[in-house]
Automatic annotation (TrEMBL):
GO terms for molecular function: DNA binding. Residues 15-53 form the HTH psq-type domain. This is HTH psq-type domain-containing protein. GO terms for cellular component: nucleus. InterPro entries: Homeodomain-like_sf, HTH_Psq. SUPFAM superfamilies: Homeodomain-like. It is found in: Nucleus. It comes from Photinus pyralis.
Length: 79
């Protein structure tokens, strides 16, 4: 009898919660782990976004995962 695998959860954090968590770390002096717990995001992901934001303070950073580089077909063909 085969075992049942748990489905993987990729990209569970919303852009809003991720930007709130990054704001907590950069502006309100929370640690990365504290902000991750408060905003319900995973701390390694939050650490990566904080690093991006620190290196590019004035630029706009997308706070959501980019899955388009792994997409095999165009959006019209996916449906």
């Amino acid at each position: 009898m085969p075992r049942k695998l748990k489905p993987r959860k990729y990209g569970t954090a919303t852009a809003e919660s991720m930007s709130n968590a990054v704001d907590l770390v950069l502006n309100q002096n929370y640690s990365v782990r504290q902000a991750a717990v408060c905003c319900n995001v995973k701390y390694p992901t939050l650490q990566r976004y904080v690093k991006k934001k620190r290196s590019n303070l004035e630029g706009n950073i997308r706070m959501e995962p980019n899955y388009y580089h792994r997409q095999l077909f165009k959006d019209e063909h996916e449906e």
